[in-house]
Design a protein that fits this description.
The protein is an alpha/beta fold and 239 residues long. The protein has 5 helices and 13 strands.
Length: 239
Amino acid sequence: MTISLTADNQDYFFDAVVVGIGHAGIEAALALARSGFKTLALSISLDNAGFLACNPSIGGTAKGHLVCEVDALGGEMGKAADETMTHLRMLNSSKGPAVQSLRAQIDKYRYHDRMKSVLENEPNLTLRQGEVREILTENCQGDGGVDNILGYVKKGIAINHVYEDSNIVNTTVPLTIFGVKTVSGLKYCAKVVVIATGVYLNSAIITGDVIEERGPSGFARSNYLADSLSKLGFRLRRF
């Protein structure tokens, strides 16, 4: 079903859309909403909100500095870790202070429940389930209509990260970002689209010689968004 958007249908108009609700997506969505912007957070499954599918820990060497910076800026990760940890350990305690760091092991189910509840109860933030099929760069009026609805959208710049022999070459391409379209045909208008898909973007699980096209912990993967990003000029690579 395709929704034709009008100025009277404000449920599909947002200041920002965040795609993905892992660590980065959660912090981005909360930061935008808490700054007064009407924000939509989209995920393939709401059951994977902050699920910690790869590693149920917060902090550690290098990552611990990032957690402290997020916490200093009013983020949620450190608070959730304090409430859901199973134990806290100082790593490399037998070595010098430069390489010592705190790491908390987390109950991933409690962490998920806690983060999902925070997202659901945050003013200015709408949480919905849906797989994003493409980034809209033409119009957000369904099949036809005006290119700029009541001046809602604005010009943006896309940065292409081209990997050539391990060197990053940056080029700029003028684009107008209007929002996103899901696999079910729903279109959400937005001034800003934040992509925080983590390891789910066209992901594969490799076990020995067996390759499965799915996300971690049995979750579905994102099947279409990678193609949309490629068409916009982004060169993608797999770790």
